[in-house]
Every structure is written in structure tokens, then in C-alpha cells.
Design goal:
Strands 1-2-3-5-4 form a 5-stranded antiparallel beta sheet. With about 350 residues, it is of the alpha+beta class. Helix 3 (about 140-155) crosses helix 8 (about 275-295) and helix 10 packs antiparallel against helix 11. It folds into 2 domains: about 5-120, 2-Layer Sandwich (Phosphorylase Kinase, domain 1); about 125-354, Aminoglycoside 3'-phosphotransferase, Chain: A, domain 2, CATH 3.90.1200. Strand 4 (about 105-110) and strand 5 (about 115-120) form a beta hairpin. It has helices spanning about 10-20, 80-90, 140-155, 170-190, 200-215, 215-220, 260-265, 275-295, 300-315, 320-325, 330-345, and strands spanning about 30-40, 45-55, 65-70, 105-110, 115-120, 125-130, 225, 235-240, 250, 255-260.
Length: about 350
């Protein structure tokens, strides 16, 4: 993508107004913008912009990250961007500092489906632990789960959850979601054909049949928090200097109010093969629980976390079906499905369907 095809917000005048509104530019002006990096993800386009200023600009960022929608995807089955814009507009300002990148501006257009975020550029101070799909080592994983615990503890059973922050889904909404998932799975199973074993077909069908009972955990609205949703390890920046509390979580388009273990199951049960998971999983759950307690969470013991984690791991087998239905490439959903099914076996999650 050329500079001329950048979203209009990347023009100097628009950036200048955004930085003034954010309170980081005073007595100076943006005189130039250059694109240092540009690449597409599955659902968005990322630009690293370098800014030039006239006049004193000591508090203004030298670079910014512009995240915007894909030009050919607005209005598609997965309306990317809208939910993340809402997160940075409504939720991030209420969070303790140092958990998510700073957002200088955000916008969603209901008429066109276009959107953008202007985010703090952490490229010089932080790094993604590994290149996908290579998992991080244990120390990096520990840093990631402690960052997640730090985030979740800040919202744990907060009275604003489901009221002013996010929304609770009632039993009817869950029933409608299950009905839609059953329809998705029917098409998924048809395309998979004999690549989907009768045992795994039965597992998925039993999960959907058991959904009304399994969703009672969610409907309790107890020991709940804000989760990232798409919580794989490549959606967390780690500090290059190794600072303990320096992690930053990014990519919040799937955030919701739910059980915190959902993020852990996405990170481990869905993404890791059995050998690594068996060696890291329990120790990382220990680290996560330790951080929750350190951050003030009470009345949620390690056994409760284990119970929640097994239920979250069981639900992970529905995620690849959703990904299939929404046009996510098979290289993602096929591997996720295989790993999630193996995690269900390794954690004896079938007994939850009895």
C-alpha cells in the first residue's frame, strides 16, 4: 500500500489535531509523515508512521501505530474494528496505566464500516516474544500470564461489569448463539467429511447439547472480569529490559466480560501441542493465580481456577468452528481444532459433559 492510499487520518493535519486533542502536542505542528512499515493482518492493516514537527514537541510521539480496517473487508461477516474502537474509547481510559498501549485517537464510521486507531508505538521498548507459530519459552510465558492476571485483577467482579462496561448475555442470548454455532458446525462437518472422526463429531455435538447447563457458570456473574478474547501469546508486548510489570496487551477486538480462564485456555489449550502444554500448563496456572492474589483478588482459590480452566478448554473446540464460519484461513482453524481436541483429552474435559 502506498502512502497516497493511507487512510486520511494519516495526513499531517489530521494527526496534528488528534495529538492536540490527546494533550501531547502544544505549540508545535506536524509538518510531515512517512511510512516506516506497512503490513496486513487477517482483519486489519498496520502502519508505523514517523512524524516530523515544527517547533518544540518534546512531549509528542516521534512515531505512531495506525491500525485500520482492510479496504476489502468492511461490511463482511466479521465486522472488525468496531469493538476494539469501543474498548479504547470506553474501557482503556478506566484501566490502570501500563496494561495496554496508549490510544491517541479512535474512530468508527457506522455508515461505511471504516475505522482506525492511533496507538502508542512500543517498537523501541517492547517486543513480541516469538514469531508465530513458535511458542515462547517458560519465562516469557510467565511474563505474559502475569500481565494477563494484572489486567484481570483490576476488573475482578467490578460492579460496573455488564452495566457500564460491557454487557451480560442472558440465557436466551446464549441459546441463540448455540443455535448459530450448531448451524456453523453442520457446514464445518460437511466440509471436513471423513477428516472429522465420529468421536470428535460426537464431542462437538455433546458440547452444544450441554450448553444450557455449562453456561450456568457464566450466568452466575461471579468471579468475572474483562478478558481479551483473542488471547494468544502474540497479542502481548514484553519489555526488552525484562521489567516484571512491563507487559502490554494489544488487539482488543474480541474483548468481553467473562471468566478469566478463557484467555488462558486460548493461550495454551488452543495454541499448544500436548508435550509443551503438559510441561508448562499447570505451572503457568500457578503463576496466574499467584499474581491474582498478589493484586488483591480474594475468594478464588487455585481449585476454582482449575475448574474454570477445564471448562474454558472444553469451549475452545467451538472457536475453530466460528473461525471457519467467518472466513479465517484453514491454517489457523485447522490447527486450533486439532490442538483444542487434544487438550480436551489431556484435561479429561469429557467428564464435564456427563
Amino acid at each position: 500500500m502506498t502512502h497516497s492510499s493511507l487512510p486520511k487520518v494519516a495526513e499531517a493535519a489530521h494527526l496534528e489535531q488528534a495529538l492536540i486533542a490527546a494533550g501531547v502536542l502544544d505549540g508545535s505542528s506536524v509538518t510531515g509523515v512517512s511510512t516506516e512499515a506497512s503490513y496486513a493482518t487477517v482483519l486489519s492493516h498496520i502502519f508505523r508512521l514517523r512524524l516530523a514537527y515544527a517547533g518544540p514537541a518534546s512531549g509528542a510521539p516521534a512515531t505512531l501505530i495506525l491500525k485500520a480496517g482492510l479496504a476489502d473487508r468492511s461490511g463482511g461477516p466479521w465486522v472488525g474494528g468496531k469493538h476494539e474502537v469501543a474498548f479504547y474509547r470506553d474501557v482503556a481510559p478506566l484501566m490502570p496505566p501500563g496494561i495496554v498501549p496508549r490510544c491517541f485517537a479512535q474512530h468508527w464510521d457506522d455508515d461505511t464500516g471504516t475505522w482506525h486507531l492511533l496507538l502508542e508505538d512500543l517498537s523501541d521498548s517492547h517486543v513480541i516474544a516469538t514469531r508465530w507459530p513458535l511458542p515462547p519459552d517458560f519465562s516469557q510465558c510467565e511474563a505474559i500470564v502475569r500481565t494477563r492476571a494484572r489486567c484481570q485483577a483490576a476488573w475482578w467482579d467490578d460492579p460496573r461489569l455488564g452495566v457500564a462496561i460491557g454487557a451480560w448475555q442472558d440465557a436466551r442470548a446464549h441459546e441463540e448463539a448455540t443455535t448459530a454455532m450448531v448451524s456453523h458446525f453442520s457446514r464445518f462437518a460437511d466440509e471436513m467429511g471423513d477428516r472429522l472422526s465420529p468421536e470428535r463429531r460426537s464431542l462437538c455435538e455433546r458440547l452444544f447439547d450441554s450448553a444450557p447447563r455449562l453456561t450456568q457458570r457464566y450466568l452466575s456473574h461471579h468471579n468475572m472480569t474483562i478478558i481479551q478474547g483473542d488471547a494468544h501469546v502474540w497479542n502481548c508486548f514484553l519489555p526488552k529490559d525484562g521489567a516484571r510489570d512491563g507487559g502490554r496487551l494489544f488487539d482488543w477486538d474480541a474483548w468481553q466480560v467473562n471468566t478469566g480462564s478463557d484467555d488462558l485456555a486460548c493461550m495454551m489449550a488452543q495454541q499448544w501441542y500436548p508435550d509443551l502444554r503438559s510441561r508448562f500448563e499447570s505451572r503457568l496456572l500457578d503463576c496466574f493465580h499467584d499474581e491474582l492474589v498478589t493484586r488483591g483478588v480474594q475468594g478464588y482459590d487455585r481449585r476454582a481456577l482449575q475448574d474454570d480452566y477445564r471448562l474454558s478448554a472444553l469451549w475452545q473446540i467451538a472457536t475453530p468452528v466460528w473461525q471457519y464460519a467467518n472466513g479465517i484461513p484453514p491454517v489457523i482453524w485447522w490447527n486450533n481444532f486439532e490442538r483444542a481436541c487434544m487438550a480436551v483429552d489431556g484435561l479429561d474435559c469429557r467428564e464435564l459433559l456427563a
